[in-house]
Design goal:
Elements: H1 7-18, H2 21-37, H3 49-70, H4 107-110, H5 115-121, H6 126-137, H7 142-149, H8 153-167
Length: 168
């Protein structure tokens, strides 16, 4: 089984999920490693190689996002405030978000890698983000997404509706 033809699209998927090119490349490598280790358990009757790889990549990305929420942000990302009495307000920007290098994909494939879109998607909860990207961008069916996320089709449709409403 050859997984290499899917590498670039997996990098793009991980980038959409995380907003960091470097993390996307690392997680794609982790996806490929997990796929290689599990190659004996792959069943072509249950899913295509592409669907199987996306399931692995989704789990890798969701784990990374969960770990990201628990780790402290690096200091020095913003200037200190002069007003000590000012209320604390959450930052809505995403300091680690970075643009995707345009040279890797043709213009049509880059349309959904625009920084503004990726930034907006970062505001969604991780599972809604995964559902939105898998359904709307990659055009997997609700049944396939449900299988990839170990959930039900109604749960996928509900998450997609919530994601769309949040982005609107």
């Amino acid at each position: 089984m050859d997984t290499e033809p899917y590498r670039n699209e997996l990098v793009a998927y991980c980038y959409r999920m995380l907003g960091s090119v470097h993390e996307a490349e690392d997680l794609t490598q982790e996806t490929m490693l997990r796929a290689w280790k599990a190659r004996e358990r792959y069943d072509p009757e249950r899913a295509s190689v592409r669907t199987w790889l996306y399931r692995i990549a989704t789990n890798v990305c969701l784990s990374a996002l969960e770990a990201r929420a628990r780790r402290p942000l690096p200091s020095g990302l913003g200037a200190p405030s002069d007003d000590l009495g000012a209320p604390l307000a959450p930052r809505i920007d995403i300091p680690w978000l970075e643009p995707f290098p345009d040279g890797r994909f043709d213009a049509e494939a880059r349309a959904d890698l625009r920084l503004a879109w990726v930034a907006a998607v970062q505001l969604l909860p991780a599972r809604q983000r995964a559902v939105l990207v898998l359904r709307e961008v990659l055009e997997f069916s609700a049944v396939e997404v449900a299988a990839q996320l170990d959930t039900t089709v109604p749960a996928v449709n509900s998450a997609l509706q919530r994601a769309r409403a949040t982005l609107a």
